[in-house]
Amino acid sequence: MADVFFTSDHHFGDRSILDVESRPFPGVPEMNEVMVARWNETVTPEDRVYHLGDFSVLDQEETRRVVSRLNGYKILILGNHDREHGRTRSWWLDAGFQEAHETGLIYQNFFLLTHEPLYMNKHMPFVNVHGHIHGQKYADKQHFNVCVEHWNYRPVSFGEMRRILAGEIK
């Protein structure tokens, strides 16, 4: 049975992210290869992956090569870096994503999928699944950060996310 995964902020090809986020890789090629390997160790070809933005700074041909190597049906919600240099929804579809969205999505009528975290007051009955803030994390149950830095550079499954939110696992 297919599973659903969430992830964000891979920044494939981005040299500066190594320093900015203190990523544990000697260089960009090693970072890219480890992230592809960990994605494919986690996700099967039948699974669905929501990437919540900032996927790649590579040109379209190189980005297409990376996307084609990754397992699963891939859905991108554009992040701030995904829009740079005139990159549009159609650019990302041409790069190999099966779906690309300019704005966030609602998943199962309860989870708000966005790149940047949204303001959520304590009375809102939703969970904001987001990226963008990398190593930072909100201490409330209404935000769930899926940036690769929190998940050992792999996507996190919907089931695991729900168990964490329910307090069943830490």
Q: How is this fold's topology laid out?
A:
Blueprint: E1 4-7, H1 16-20, H2 28-42, E2 48-51, H3 60-69, E3 73-77, H4 89-94, E4 99-101, E5 105-107, E6 111-113, E7 127-130, E8 143-145, E9 156-157, H5 158-165
Parallel strand pairs: 1-2, 2-3, 3-4, 6-7, 7-8
Antiparallel strand pairs: 1-9, 5-6
Properties at a glance:
170 residues, alpha/beta, Purple Acid Phosphatase, chain A, domain 2, five-stranded mixed sheet, four-stranded mixed sheet, 5 helices, 9 strands, 26% helix, globular
Give me the CATH superfamily.
Metallo-dependent phosphatases
Residues in β-strands, percent: 15-25%
CATH topology: Purple Acid Phosphatase, chain A, domain 2
Q: Any idea what the shape is?
A: globular
Which structural class do you get from the secondary structure elements?
Answer: alpha/beta
- Write down the secondary-structure element order: EHHEHEHEEEEEEH
The oligomerization state is single chain
Give the CATH level 1 class.
Alpha Beta
Whole-number total of structural domains: 1
What does the largest sheet look like? Answer: 5 strands, mixed
Helicity range = 25-40%
**CATH hierarchy: architecture:** 4-Layer Sandwich
Q: What is the number of beta strands?
A: 9
User: Segments where pLDDT lies below 50 for 5+ residues?
Assistant: none
Discrete helix count:
5
Compute the average pLDDT: 95
- In spatial order, strands of the major sheet run 4-3-2-1-9
What Rg is obtained from the alpha carbons, in whole angstroms? 15 Å
Organism: Paenibacillus spiritus
Protein name: Phosphoesterase
InterPro entries: Metallo-depent_PP-like (IPR029052)
